[in-house]
Amino acid sequence: xxxxxxxxxxxxxxxxxxxxxxxxxxxxxxxxxxxxxxxxxxxxxxxxxxxxxxxxxxxxxxxxxxxxxxxxxxxxxxxxxxxxxxxxxxxxxxxxxxxxxxxxxxxxxxxxxxxxxxxxxxxxxxxxxxxxxxxxxxxxxxxxxxxxxxxxxxxxxxxxxxxxxxxxxxxxxxxxxxxxxxxxxxxxxxxxxxxxxxxxxxxxxxxxxxxxxxxxxxxxxxxxxxxxxxxxxxxxxxxxxxxxxxxxxxxxxxxxxxxxxxxxxxxxxxxxxxxxxxxxxxxxxxxxxxxxxxxxxxxxxxxxxxxxxxxxxxxxxxxxxxxxxxxxxxxxxxxxxxxxxxxxxxxxxxxxxxxxxxxxxxxxxxxxxxxxxxxxxxxxxxxxxxxxxxxxxxxxxxxxxxxxxxxxxxxxxxxxxxxxxxxxxxxxxxxxxxxxxxxxxxxxxxxxxxxxxxxxxxxxxxxxxxxxxxxxxxxxxxxxxxxxxxxxxxxxxxxxxxxxxxxxxxxxxxxxxxxxxxxxxxxxxxxxxxxxxxxxxxxxxxxxxxxxxxxxxxxxxxxxxxxxxxxxxxxxxxxxxxxxxxxxxxxxxxxxxxxxxxxxxxxxxxxxxxxxxxxxxxxxxxxxxxxxxxxxxxxxxxxxxxxxxxxxxxxxxxxxxxxxxxxxxxxxxxxxxxxxxxxxxxxxxxxxxxxxxxxxxxxxxxxxxxxxxxxxxxxxxxxxxxxxxxxxxxxxxxxxxxxxxxxxxxxxxxxxxxxxxxxxxxxxxxxxxxxxxxxxxxxxxxxxxxxxxxxxxxxxxxxxxxxxxxxxxxxxxxxxxxxxxxxxxxxxxxxxxxxxxxxxxxxxxxxxxxxxxxxxxxxxxxxxxxxxxxxxxxxxxxxxxxxxxxxxxxxxxxxxxxxxxxxxxxxxxxxxxxxxxxxxxxxxxxxxxxxxxxxxxxxxxxxxxxxxxxxxxxxxxxxxxxxxxxxxxxxxxxxxxxxxxxxxxxxxxxxxxxxxxxxxxxxxxxxxxxxxxxxxxxxxxxxxxxxxxxxxxxxxxxxxxxxxxxxxxxxxxxxxxxxxxxxxxxxxxxxxxxxxxxxxxxxxxxxxxxxxxxxxxxxxxxxxxxxxxxxxxxxxxxxxxxxxxxxxxxxxxxxxxxxxxxxxxxxxxxxxxxxxxxxxxxxxxxxxxxxxxxxxxxxxxxxxxxxxxxxxxxxxxxxxxxxxxxxxxxxxxxxxxxxxxxxxxxxxxxxxxxxxxxxxxxxxxxxxxxxxxxxxxxxxxxxxxxxxxxxxxxxxxxxxxxxxxxxxxxxxxxxxxxxxxxxxxxxxxxxxxxxxxxxxxxxxxxxxxxxxxxxxxxxxxxxxxxxxxxxxxxxxxxxxxxxxxxxxxxxxxxxxxxxxxxxxxxxxxxxxxxxxxxxxxxxxxxxxxxxxxxxxxxxxxxxxxxxxxxxxxxxxxxxx
Length: 1440
Hints:
Number of strands: 54
Shape: globular
CATH superfamily of the domain at 1050-1432: NAD(P)-binding Rossmann-like Domain
Largest sheet: 9 strands, mixed
CATH topology of the domain at 1050-1432: Rossmann fold
Helix content: 25-40%
Strand order of the largest sheet: 15-14-23-22-24-25-26-27-28
Number of helices: 45
Radius of gyration: 37 Å
Strand content: 15-25%
Distance between the termini: 38 Å
């Protein structure tokens, strides 16, 4: 058609186009519907019917083209369409038809200037025929497609029965296009705009079903179909008729209630489609009308179900009235107003009751799933089979939800549905996700903790009974002072009598402000024996805090033992300020009276101690713990832990922290020796370790923060070795800390403990000695744990809720705070007359019946409208190999806006860019901290917990100070200021502001390079690292920065052996015995390992760095070779080390042992990326290689070094003219310094050649462009970081290439072939100093690649540069399609063909031929494997 009339896209079409742009080359927009007809069909007549309908409906003939970067549509002329005819009528045909149908549904359409529909007719067995329709969503919605199929069958029926049929032009989609154009300028449009702006006056919180996988994900999805039974469908029908409610409203209400309960959210936004056909004419018009609208719904848990249904219907009615305002515009308005970058919903719901029936035709409908879903979960309810049963299709992201999780959601939905129908008068909080059996399990089966114990006993009685058993055993050691059980008991009795005489009675509070000394334990026991309640006070507390505690507790007696003038002055001040009696336990006369046990005056429900904890408001509160609760703790711990009278425990904790009880009163009840660390031993690790060794201590309790500080000590391994039981608690235990602790304490049983002070020290425990994943386990004896939602309903297993604790360990409440006691200690709804404690902690039950701790309720913060779990970010940061500790908090900037700030401790301070990139792969953008601050240590409170109040303000740190805002000086700087402001989302930008401190990262660099592409400025990605300010970049663009990257003297560098024909100067032993392999976790390294395992008998020592080395290695190995042939895994020895560290990061003993064990080194480790900070590259690639060289020289071991052909550069500099780069060359004048990675690999080779003069026997393997395995196309895990694959992705998505690239040769070096070639060469090479060029010289021209792609229905268009620029301009907002070209072409832009470097491999080819090795041909089959893998892993659909 010449000069067709072009029309813009409608709003519904534009939404589909946007998705196509975002998820390019997927089947996401494919609609596939069909019917199976139970009679034979005349396919010729059917084809005629199809063509009549195509002729009648203009929308079917819509085509799309690009005009000045914008999509436009036109109606193509009618052409006869030939339906595809297939035959699956053989015995296995139905199965093959199902496979064909699913595959065909997933084949994407080509969008531009081509038919966007496909129709096939398939013969099946038993005279059945399937009619299959696949339409692109741009030209049709489900309503249209159903109508079209129905019309085709009706026309067919007329034609086959020779009835007259009149061709009538159906209503045209053009009328809708024109109407929408006028609508967008109408007052109605503005009214609808205002409605949606008011509806979303605040940003709704995302409704997320999964917080474990919040990072960017692709659209690959599964469908799980569940059927609603006829009986249940009938019950729903009866209920709906009775209460006059539609099926849509009923099921939407049930679904939203289910999601609300699963996510613990009251305010939801669920996406739902609307028909969007305003009148009879539009309902009979084919085309894309349907639009999705966000359905915000608030659930008041006190409503009954009928009220909720009525509310839902009213909200829906208002939304329907305003449905024509496009979702894209709603989102655009919100983003403009709030700087919001997300979507409004991540869950969708639809309800369809349309049926496809044709008179006198027996048929069955089917819909095919296209394999993609942009939401985490989409539920579609339909009855298109018309069999009396509703069909529930759950489409879900495979990266976000598992099959089991979706099945659980369905089970909950059915439970809710049944409960709501049976008792609609129930409140929403009472309608339960759970069955009676579920509830019984959560309340009873998971809390089978009953334990009998002597409930009438008091804490000091248990101690006195132990004194009778072991009177002469040592009870207490502190500062080398030793007291036997008898001596400790007698002194406590003597002091207790004095206290009674001074008026101590049951429940009267006696303060203890005692240094760590024998008097501390004497004082505690004496108060208990006297009948009183002890209040522990740390003498290190500020005087004002001590005074406040004494006032608040109304304490009038204080036991002290001041050791200095300053301490005596403090005590004197307190005596006056609080009016209390002070008793100095240094007074020896206190221990001269009767030493026998006192008569007991207490009952079990009298107070044993009051301990103050910090409140969320900042005011401390006194927790009252009774004797009965401590008694229960003592007996509960005995059941699980290995207490023995022969053991000793170290008391490390401050007396003011309740876990001090676990270190003192508990062990003293079992005859264990308590060794109390003094103030110095508490703080200095080596003194503590000396104490442990000296006293044969086997038991230690500490917080994770304290454990972390001990692990930093060089002597920690020896220090932890004697320990047999380690109790960790008081704050969350991370997997990293646990893993490190397991390594240094191999003989110890390690327990993760959990318990708020209000539950008497510990209420849950888990042995984690062998565990990798941390939970807080199960409740201790006589304790019940419930996980409840905000209305205190039980939540299902796997669902997050708040932890509530019941049982005999509960505190009485808060001292003199009945209001707070009533708020936190509430009636137990599951046990009449009992109380439970609301912890404020979040958790969820695991499938194993343990509890996973998920942080504090008050750790949830809001930043930019998003609710964020700070612990989730911390957990992610700690998994970074350079981060040992991480704390994330919110801070406020100068504009009173909250931002996230991360405080980190680690061996190495890595760059902000690296951290942002790392988190960006794992968390959504809004969860990435704005600032990162590295500290020497995280500050701790006296209780050894993180002291967040002491974290420094990042604004005051020099490296984060704002620069003076200097305005742009020229047009280049003006444009860069505009772009930085736009891309980085910051208001004002000065020309001396640092790109990375403003929040820039590699993605932002690519976006800016894309935007400036047409200006042909001489900038590439590395320039942003070299020149991180606008002033510097501007100077670079304008030629004011002179680059001195030319090395003039060739003789400055050593050269490889130039003549391989000469007699050998140095013999190099071939690979025979054990091998040290570095870089084994890399893509090539893993395949080198595979070759060594399968083609040698060597034991391979793999040096790997980072935490969880063995686990990470196994995961990678299984990823690459999970279905491969057998291999002897016992020959793999994993060694934790680091090539960039001295002695490879090993101890001198391990280093020497390794040197003795290996006879060959294969060095394949390296930092492989193409821009960043040179210090990073230098440390790994240069210094790391030097460490390997030193190892080889020390032990006389041959080195096989894996380098890169990239060191050849791409053009000559200066006066150099010979661009031939062969195996006998190193420096030929190439521009190796233009790229930091290449420079570092070049310098590594220089070091190797220099070391040969010192006796190093070495061979170098320069590797080319590695590509997927030849066997199956599998590529490296981080495929998105590979420049060559980015280039392929760009070509495949843009479907175009500049004409001058048509004869470019492309290298494909399959990784398995390369690894085989390298190991073959190592096994046979006896010449030291040899260099191999390991690349597949069987290159293919771009034209051949284009031809091969054409056979796969992928058409690549060669364009002149003007047309190519225009196409890129269109794709400027579509980063995944451009990044490969931008990075590739910015580097190639200024290469002079006359000075181009040419790489030769003649010597290597001849050598490989002699060994029988041959590079593979790059065939159509191999390229298809590469494409299939790129699609399989979602690389062709995801945004980089």
